[in-house]
Design brief:
This protein is 33% helix and 25% strand.
Length: 212
């Protein structure tokens, strides 16, 4: 009997029919139920730019979705770990997705946010990005610093399009709940949806007007 994860993966493969099998992720990777949600959001929203904080299996599925649905856009993933960057970038090339997906090496550097200094991906890796319709926040790892993923929205809010969606993985963890609470307080016009995925997912949707 198939596990629930296997059922989600089968559905992903049926929807996208990747020409080359996409390798399974490790224990840090986005769970298959989240991957399916991201693919569905990609098909519905047709974003011209997807930004990922963190790279991995999700990079491959998102780029495959962009190609399968004929979306003229790209996926840009930020990765602070040199080893993970090399592996993710290698898989992108091996699967022939280099024209859609780019994995950028982005070492952590300090950023000042609301009077606090916090480490996040180097500004040089994302300062040129704009028009993002889907932001996946799945890094940096929580053990790098408290509230490690919090800077994503303060730093990238200006790159988001109206009606964009921000997706945070691992929402079952207390730190991620605290992060979302901060984001929601700072952006009261955004709407929050809590998804009962295996690791928990929070999806914040921007209004149809300019982001704020």
């Amino acid at each position: 009997m198939q596990t629930e994860d296997e059922q989600f993966l089968v559905r992903l493969e049926q929807i996208l029919q990747p020409p080359v099998p996409i390798p399974p992720g490790d224990g840090w990777a986005a769970a298959p139920d989240l991957l399916l949600y991201l693919v569905e959001q990609t098909r519905f929203r047709r974003p011209s730019l997807v930004i990922e904080a963190g790279s991995g299996t999700s990079t491959l599925w998102l780029a495959t979705a962009m190609r399968a649905f004929g979306i003229p856009g790209r996926v840009v993933s930020l990765e602070h770990d040199a080893g993970y960057h090399e592996r993710s970038a290698g898989e992108v090339e091996r699967l022939g997705l280099g024209d859609i997906a780019q994995v950028r090496l982005a070492p952590l550097e300090q950023h000042t946010l609301h009077g606090e200094s916090r480490p996040w991906y180097a500004q040089s890796a994302w300062k040129d990005l704009n028009g993002c319709g889907l932001l996946l926040v799945d890094g940096p790892p929580g053990l790098t610093t408290p509230l490690a993923r919090y800077p994503a929205v303060p730093l990238l809010a200006g790159a988001l399009t109206p009606n964009a969606v921000v997706v945070l993985d691992d929402y079952d963890r207390d730190e991620e709940k605290a992060i979302v609470a901060r984001w929601a307080e700072q952006h009261p016009t955004w709407t929050l949806e809590r998804l009962a995925h295996r690791k928990g997912t929070a999806a914040l949707r921007l209004p149809d007007t300019a982001p704020g």
